[in-house]
């Protein structure tokens, strides 16, 4: 927000419409049998929606570098939480 | 850095009304704005980890008991879930527009968009209440009232444990946001926020959008996964 960028109403409405379309897409995809890909499609759409909200609605696109690093760090720590926990659980079977 | 900024004299409302003007420890509104945005994101990073623990638990249990979690998930009402997703995305739009109104100095629009946001939040919570009471009537609330015909009962109960804790904490976040928003409406009406001094509304927006993001993940994970299996 350091450069005083004001996101216009048009951009917000566009993001809103995109989020609605993606919601419809994730519901439609859920009822089609894609095998193991169902989970992947649902997560990809969810991450896309989250990215839209973070960059436009939350204004991170025009935020200062320090704020951007903070955002990325937040999700990096989440990835570490998921990564290390799941590495443990999913590898337990390896020992027989 | 050293001279007092001229903006300090142009605070819109008397100090009695808690104007959220420039705090004395900031050199300028710019610096205050930047600190507020950064600080709010630090808080949200913590919130990401807070919900992250629950998402981790969900992933671990669902991976080990996929079938039972599918059975549990199918007890949820997809239609109500979709409507609530749309309502919450709509409330994110109105919140974003409230921040826009604050940035462009539209006093009444700030109040109007925040009231809309609160109303949409109320619709979401109302639908959630309908869903919760249906789960109670169907004996799907974990505890002594829980009853499941057939096998996998304990595991389905675990699904509903996670369902109620995750959606419950999400709803709690919404209630807190709506209460703060109602107070901010009052301040906004009294003219507390100006284009140079709107970091409170902006922070509130960040919080509300974060709550939206949590739901963006909760909805497919709880309502949709497993619907593809015949």
In words, what does this structure look like?
The complex is a heterodimer of chains A (96) and B (230). With 96 residues, chain A is an all-alpha fold. Chain A folds into two domains: 1-63; 64-96. Helix content of chain A is 73%, strand content 0%. Chain A has helices at 9-30, 37-57, 65-91. In chain A, helix 1 (9-30) packs antiparallel against helix 2. The radius of gyration of chain A is 18 Å and the shape is flat. Chain B has 230 residues and is mainly α. Chain B has a single domain (28-224), classed as Four Helix Bundle (Hemerythrin (Met), subunit A), CATH 1.20.120. Helix content of chain B is 71%, strand content 0%. Chain B has helices spanning 29-64, 66-73, 78-103, 107-137, 153-189, 199-224. The longest helix of chain B is centred in the C-terminal third of the chain and has 37 residues, at 153-189. Mean pLDDT of chain B is 91; it is low at 1-11. The interface between A and B is large, with 52 and 52 residues.
What's the short version?
Chain A has helices at 9-30, 37-57, 65-91. In chain A, helix 1 packs antiparallel against helix 2 (37-57).
List keywords for this structure.
heterodimer, A: 96 residues, mainly alpha, 3 helices, B: mainly alpha, Four Helix Bundle (Hemerythrin (Met), subunit A), 0% strand, elongated, disordered N terminus
